Amino acid sequence: MQSKLLDTPTSLRIAGAAGIGFALLIVSGNLVLVPAGMPSPGSPPDEAIDFFLSPNEPTGAVSMFLPAVWALATLFAAGALAAVLRAGGPAGWAYTGFAGVLLQNATFTAVVALRLAMSTVDDAQSVRALWALHETLFGFNGTFLALAMVGLGAAGFVAGLLPRWLFALGSVAAALQFATATLTPLIVTGRDSLALLGLTGWLLWAVWLCGYGLCLIRYSRRGHSSI
């Protein structure tokens, strides 16, 4: 018997709330890390060494919330996928977006694992090596954020779930993220000004998540017994 878990308005509201919660948690985490001195993408290794070898740096505390972040991201993506398919949206784009979310979850798991590793070692050379790998993975992760926004955004717009402005915003954010991923070899060699493209795209990604989540909640109120 087919599961009704993602076929009810309640499940759509859960998926929408998960998208909003995902965005709020990742923004909140950065509001803790950045004031504490977390180096920005493209920063020299010496800044990473100073941060991760400093006492009481908050990497471990922030990382405790990340399993919830990935769970919320998956719930959001699954709900968006189900809504788009039931609304007649293009399956290819929808599955592309869903895959993008899962791949960014996997990639960022590795990014966070590297941060925890840097926070537990006690020598500068280890931090230097791990930071280089961290920077590369962090930059290339923009590819998967772009896929998520293009795929779920295009499918949601064609299906009538998303307004034109939100689709356009997601497309701009995706372009910025993909450009940053492409420029990662330059960013990791010290051209940190290029990382501003990624920062702008990331902020728009957070707005897009909240907007998409609200659209799912609104769609759940249209009186459908199933989506």
UniProtKB/TrEMBL annotation:
Key words, A-Z: Membrane, Transmembrane, Transmembrane helix
Listed transmembrane segments: 12-34, 64-85, 92-117, 137-158, 165-188, 194-217
Presence of the UniProt keyword Oxidoreductase in the record: no
Superkingdom field: Bacteria
Descriptive protein name: Putative 2-oxoglutarate/malate transporter
Originating organism: Nocardia cyriacigeorgica (strain GUH-2)
